[in-house]
Amino acid sequence: MKNRICVIFTGGTIGSRALGDKVDLRCEDKSFLLELYTSRYGNTVEFDELRPLNILSENVQPSDLEKMADCVRSVNLEDYDGIIITHGTDTLCFTANLFSQIFCDIKIPLVFVSALYPLDDKRSKGVENFANAITFIESVDFGGVFVSFENHGESCKIHLASRLIAATQISGEYNSILNVHFGEVVDGSFIYNANPLNPTFSQLRQKRSPCAAKQLCMDMVTIQAHSLLNFDFYRFTEVKPKAVMVQLYHSGTVCTEGKEANFKNFLKYCKNLGIEVVIAPVDSHARTYGSAVGLTEACITAYDISFEMATVKVLLALGSGKSIEEELATNNFFEKLH
């Protein structure tokens, strides 16, 4: 162990302060997070700090993500036990999934850390999430991209970044797809979750090929299935996307009857315009409902990955000039459940 960790600060709530009934970014050269961590846990770890940007994550642009990625690429991995990226919670899921792909072959742990409240709010778990990320880094001998996050009333979970799904509404809690987290930190010790869906340590130690697609493209529209969704309002008369992603219900279904709400009518409309249509998520092992018969053959289908991961893969495919089908079929960092 080198007892040395590179910390990349990017802003977010964990890098903010409470100002009355508002929350906004801190502007400081010295990290309040590191001060709090050292005061609670001591100074046995040496930290090097990098600050490529300081933003609220809901405002993230493709250029910001590229700055973060370039910052990671600039780190000499031989000098560190791991890398920690502080990040806002609003878009944590997207960035974590993205980095799990473009840094799928990283040789040391890269761990995202966030907080639902600013560090000067007693409800904040930012310091704990940071400390538990360090515990995890010190406990493993493999690389990869992970997330350290403690939900209310739970122990801190360590998630495979490739399986993190969107935060729950209002409460902002994070989980992995199918609620299978990679492990947890309890009383200062990392405990692996020996669920058969999780990769083993041996698998994580194996060399992984780099991700072929590394550029993003924003030319995509996402639509979430819900009752009485009127597809007729999605008309691309002025600006035409390269792809449309439709998030299906949990059972892999969407309305396929009626007129305005009929996805099959919308599918024909998109195909006439030359727009790729992607549906997700779809469990390859599940039975097909009558309403969904023929859909997987008529669309590009994202099998056995979260909708969040499918979104990342499609944007990477579009930005890198790759086939969407081929990119969805890859398994760069254990995102596939089957």
Outline:
With 338 residues, this protein is of the alpha/beta class. It has nine helices and 14 strands. The strands form three sheets. It has an eight-stranded mixed sheet with strand order 4-1-5-6-7-8-9-10, with helices on both faces. Strands 11-12-13-14 form a four-stranded parallel sheet, with helices on both faces.
Tally the beta strands. Answer: 14
Can you tell me the overall shape? Answer: globular
- Compressed to H and E, one letter per element, the order equals EEEHEHEHEHEEEEHEEHEHEHH
Q: Which class do the helix and strand fractions yield?
A: alpha/beta
The largest pleated sheet is described as:
8 strands, mixed
Q: Reading side by side through the largest sheet, how are the strands ordered?
A: 4-1-5-6-7-8-9-10
Q: What is the averaged pLDDT score?
A: 95
Could you name the ranges where pLDDT drops below 50 across 5 or more consecutive residues? none
The portion of residues assigned to helices is: 25-40%
Explain what this protein looks like in three dimensions.
The protein is globular. Helix 1 crosses helix 4. The protein is of the alpha/beta class and 338 residues long. Helix content is 26%, strand content 21%. It contains nine helices and 14 strands. The protein has an eight-stranded mixed sheet, sandwiched between helices.
